[in-house]
Amino acid sequence: MGGMGEDGGRYFLSQMIEVLTYMQGKGVVHRDLKLENILIDDSLNLKIADFGFATYKKIDKLKSYRGTMTYMAPEIKEGKVYNGKQIDMFSTGVILFIIVQGIFPFKEAKKDEYFYNLLLQGKFE
């Protein structure tokens, strides 16, 4: 099928930044952002759904295993303490990649995955 390209990605990202800014301003993190949890109305406005894993307590020092593997930041899988804001941003980056390219960047964020390894090396072009 293919992605929506950079224009589609910019449109999506500008709305997601507004959503994340609003949620984080209220002290809320979602922890399961994925394509399936993004709804779009007739005017192409994004709506975030399924706040089942969301929290507002100690969002900068979370440890519980939450999310969907293909969108999940490695620190969650590794059982490390994580910042919920950063986790939501990581998932947003995965979603952005899918929207622009039309494919998942990886099955899970591990060093042996090509695109994730590029991020670790800082050589993403």
Descriptive notes:
This protein has helices at residues 5-25, 74-77, 84-101, 114-121, and strands at residues 38-40, 46-48. The longest helix is centred in the N-terminal third of the chain and has 21 residues, at 5-25. α1 runs antiparallel to α3. With 125 residues, the protein is mostly helical. It has a two-stranded antiparallel sheet. Helices cover 41% and strands 5% of the residues. The model has no long low-confidence stretch (mean pLDDT 91). The protein has a single domain, classed as Transferase(Phosphotransferase), domain 1.
Question: Which key features would you list for this structure?
Answer:
Transferase(Phosphotransferase), domain 1; 125 residues; 4 helices; mainly alpha; two-stranded antiparallel sheet
Q: Can you describe this structure in just a few lines?
A:
This protein has 125 residues and is mainly α. The chain has one domain (5-119): Transferase(Phosphotransferase) domain 1 (Transferase(Phosphotransferase), domain 1), CATH 1.10.510.10.
CATH topology, which one?
Transferase(Phosphotransferase), domain 1
Roughly what fraction of the amino acids lie in strands?
A: under 5%
Overall radius of gyration: 14 Å
Give the count of structural domains: 1
